[in-house]
Amino acid sequence: MGQRKASKDGDRKVGRRALLIGGTVAAAGSAVLARDELARLWWRTPGVEKPREEGAVDYTGARWVAASDANWRRADRPDDFGIDMVIVHVTQGSFDSAVKAFRDPGHKAATHYIVRQDGHVTQMIRELDVAYHAGNRDYNERSVGIEHEGFVDRPQDFTDEMYEASARLTARICARYDIPVDREHIIGHVEVPGADHTDPGRHWDWDKYMRLVRRARTAPA
Which residues contact 35 (CB under 8 A, 6 or more apart)? Predict the structure, then answer.
């Protein structure tokens, strides 16, 4: 938040091949194969919503707690909106207060994930969907938002456990959507155009964080 006031984790890379595959197979005259291929790949077609399982998470080990429907928009990413960015936030409060806020329809904002100081990860919005977290519609549509428990003016809140857990999460997101691991694509909320938030603040150690993300990105899955 950072306001001045206060399934399995796999590479779900999606393509746009369903129509091409269907057309190619049909041209080959194999109706049975075409039917089988389209049945298997229908969800890859842009504009066709992917199947959803209640309580499913996009990152292994994350706990699912659903945000209010008022704080995000249903989408079909990355088919309808490409994902090319991770945005780092700080809650400006406790983990519990952030969860409570994101479950409140009157809050009108939420991130996909919250990372606690002990490294626990909670997912509240599917990566498929657009979270209202950046204060900029374009950035919301193309990013995954990650909150971190703490206050921007308290460097002690940014624990090693938090940095390491968040870096692993960001590395998996970058792998899933082929996002470059650099500061143009992994940014703070304060860097979003038009944002009036200051998080993650001057105490967030970007050098340490990016080093951990790169290490996690190249580690065996």
Answer: none
